[in-house]
Amino acid sequence: MCIDIIKGCEKREIMSFLSLVVKNPFRNKTRSALAIVGIAIGIMVIVALGMVTGGLKNSTQSTLKAGAAEITVVQAGSNSFESGGTINESTAADILNLSGVKDTTGILRASNTSTSIATTSSNSSQGGFAGPGGGLSITGIDSSKLSLLGIDSLNGTVFTNSSTNQVIMGKTVAQDLNKTVGDTIDLYGQNFTIVGTFETGSFLTDAGIMMPLANLQNLTSNQNKVSDVLVKVTDNANVTTVSNEIDNAYPNQLTTTTAADQANRINQGLSFIDTASWAISLLAIFIGAVGVINTMIMSVYERTREIGVLKAVGWTDRRILGMILGESIVLTLIAFVVGTIIAVVGVELILTLSPSVGGIITPSFSYDIFLRAFLVAFLVGVFGGLYPAYRASRLSPTEALRYE
User: Fold this and answer.
1) Using CA atoms in the order 214, 159, 172, 177, what is the torsion angle rounded to 10 degrees?
2) Main-chain dihedrals φ then ψ at residue 388, nearest 5 degrees
3) Residue 23: how many CB atoms within 10 A of its CB?
4) CA-CA distance, 94 to 258, in Å (whole number)?
5) What is the pLDDT of residues 118-169, one digit of tens each?
6) pTM metric for this prediction
C-alpha cells in the first residue's frame, strides 16, 4: 500500500515536471515564436533541398538500368547534349565489330524552336526539356533500338522507320504540352502525329520527343550524320575496358563516356547543392540558436525568484538544469515540426503549380532527410539551452529569493 502511494506520488511529480517543461517556454509567446521561426527556416531549407536533390539523384540512377546503353560515343571535344550531326552514321556499325560490344545505334539530337511550341502549353514558355539550342529536345533513332535509350514499353505504338509524320513523346513533355496518343504537334513547320508515349524514369529522356532517325536527318540537313553512338556491351564484358577500346580505335576522333560517369557527374553537381543548402542552413540555425539563447536567458532572468523558490523547496541543481534545457529542446523540436511541414507543403505546391518542373523532379521522402533535420533541431536545442540552464542551476536560493 505504501509502495503504491510512493509510486503514485513519483508519477504525479514526473508529470508535473514535464508539464512545466512544455508550458514554460510560452510564457512570453512573442519571444518564443521568434526563436521558433529562426530555427524553422534552417530546418525548412534542409528538408526542402534534401527532398529535391534526393529526387534528382534517384532519377540519375535510372540511367544505369539493365536495358539501356552503358556507353555513349561522341566526337572528341563535344558532349552528349550538343545538337547536330558530327559523326558518320556508319561508325555505329564499325563499333559493333569491336570486342565486348553487343549492340549499337546512332542517334541525332536536335532542338525545335517552332513558335507553335511556345504557345501550345499554358504552363511552360517552351514546353518540355530545352535542348542546347533552346526549344524542344528531339531525338532521331531507329525504332528497333529504343531500348538503348531505356524505352522498354509504350502507351500506344512505336513509330515506323519509314514514316515521315509519326513521333513518340516522353511523359513529362506530354503532360506539359497537354498531349496524348492521337494528338498532333507542329515540329519544324510540319504536323506530326503522336503514336505513343513513354516513361523511363530519366528526367532528361522523359522530357523529349523521338522520331525516325532518317526523318530528323532530313529535317535538319544532317544526312548520314549522328550526334552520338549508343553502345550496349555484352553480359560478360567490362564497361570500362570496352570504353577504352573504343577510345583507342578512334584516337583524337571520338571520345566515350559511361552511364556511371554521367550519373556521377550529375551527382557531383547535386553535391554542390547539398553543400550550399548546409551553408544556408547553418547560417539560419546560428541565427536561430542565438534566438534560443536569448529567449532562455531572458526566461531565467524573469524567473529568478521562482527558481529560488523551487530550490528552497528541495529542487536540485540537476533538476533545474534539466527543466531549462528541456524547455529549450521543446522550442527547437516545435521548430522542427513547423519547418518540416512548410518544406513538404512548399515543395509539393511548387511542383504542382509548375508541371514542367514537377514532371522532372520527384521529391524524395527518405527518412534520412527528416532524421538529419531532427538531429539538427535537437542539437540546437541542447547547445542553445546549455548556458542558460547552467546559469539557472547555479543560482543561490537566498540571493534568488531576495531578487525583485
Assistant:
1) 90
2) -60, -40
3) 11
4) 19
5) 333 333 333 444 444 456 889 999 999 998 988 888 899 999 998 889 999 9
6) 0.62
